Amino acid sequence: MTEFEHFPVQSSVVLLRICDYARRSVAEQARLSAQLDAVLALLLPDIPERSRLVLAGNGRAAVAVLDDAPAALAFAERALRAHDAGLGLCIGIDHGPVEVVSGETGEELAGDGLATASLFAASATDTSLLVTQNFRTALAYMSPGAESALVPAVSLSDAGLRTYQAFSLDRMATHRRRRKLMLSAVVTACVLLLVAVSLRLWMPDRPRPLAGFVKSVPDTIDRFTRNFHGRP
């Protein structure tokens, strides 16, 4: 049994879909399905068994990850390597409610999380990976700063005419953000230094409130000493 016994639950759903699967020959479908199974067998051990639920078939696989958006994104990124190797995966990720229901072929995964992830996977033909705003928000909550790698891509609509903002993965965006922050810090430090130098140059003889007092201290002590000894 898994932690998914208690449904519905909020999960990060990664939907892996072989692009144009239905248009391929039966033999090619069998070959690609075997490759997808091999990818799952290689990558799934990185996610604790009690924190995931996997349903696969017909050229696609749904991986629901309980309460761990960073792990879901890491899984999807590694799956992209199989895409780069020629498997032709389209990946969609959402964070939302899912549940296990009984279907004609046995247990099936259902819920808004799966439906939206499927929509995004079907639309990820150009970028290979699209994620929802809900997932990006969950990622920011669980791993602050990691969401900067997810940048706006396109707007999508489902059958109910609901509109979604889709985000794609851009790891260079994180590096650009860091460089921007470093540049901002350097510029701020330079401005502060310039202001300090300017004040020094423009006000070299600015008043020193204690300067007169400090200068008069030796004279006061000398007068007190002379008076104490009765000398003029």
List the SSEs and their pairings:
Blueprint (H helix, E strand, L loop, with lengths): L8 E10 L7 H18 L8 E6 L2 E7 L2 H19 L1 E15 L2 E5 L1 H11 L6 E3 L1 H10 L7 E8 L5 E7 L1 H32 L8 H18 L4
Parallel strand pairs: 4-6
Antiparallel strand pairs: 1-3, 1-4, 2-3, 4-5, 7-8
Question: Could you give a quick summary of the protein structure above?
Answer:
Strands 1, 2, 3, 4, 5 and 6 form a 6-stranded mixed beta sheet that branches. The chain has a two-stranded antiparallel ribbon with strand order 7-8.
Overall description:
With 232 residues, the chain is an alpha+beta fold. The protein contains six helices and eight strands; from the N terminus they run βαββαββαβαββαα. The protein has helices at 26-43, 69-87, 112-122, 133-142, 171-202, 211-228; strands at 9-18, 52-57, 60-66, 89-103, 106-110, 129-131, 150-157, 163-169. Strands 1, 2, 3, 4, 5 and 6 form a six-stranded mixed sheet that branches. Strands 7-8 form a two-stranded antiparallel ribbon. Helix 1 packs across helix 2. The longest helix is centred in the last third of the chain and has 32 residues, at 171-202.
